[in-house]
């Protein structure tokens, strides 16, 4: 019985002490970000930018952009009539 009372008192004291500490983390309506949260946000922005650049490059190579020219780098290696070349 005494152990449960001691545990209850200890938990109440712990809750009373941590209340003001968590209140300091918030400033009005906005919450301050920790350095890890700021780093994660920066990584997300960089990943989104990289994805946008990748998508733009893929659109250019597929010809979906304004440039409709298709480049065939192996065109001079193929024969004109489509027959296999002699080796």
What is the helix tally?
A: 2
Radius of gyration: 32 Å
SSE ordering: HEEH
Largest sheet: 2 strands, antiparallel
Q: What general form does the structure show? A: rod-shaped
Low-confidence parts lasting 5 or more residues at pLDDT below 50? none
Helix residue percentage: 55-70%
Q: List how many beta strands DSSP finds.
A: 2
Strand order of the largest sheet: 1-2
How far apart are the first and last residues' alpha carbons, in Å?
A: 96 Å
Structural class: mainly alpha
| Chain-averaged pLDDT | 78
**What share of the residues does DSSP label as strand, in percent?**
under 5%
Walk me through the structure.
By secondary structure, the chain is mainly alpha-helical. It has a domain at about 35-65. It has 2 helices and 2 strands; from the N terminus they run H-E-E-H. It has a two-stranded antiparallel sheet with strand order 1-2. Strand 1 (about 25) and strand 2 form a beta hairpin. It is rod-shaped and about 100 Å long.
List keywords for this structure.
87 residues; mainly alpha
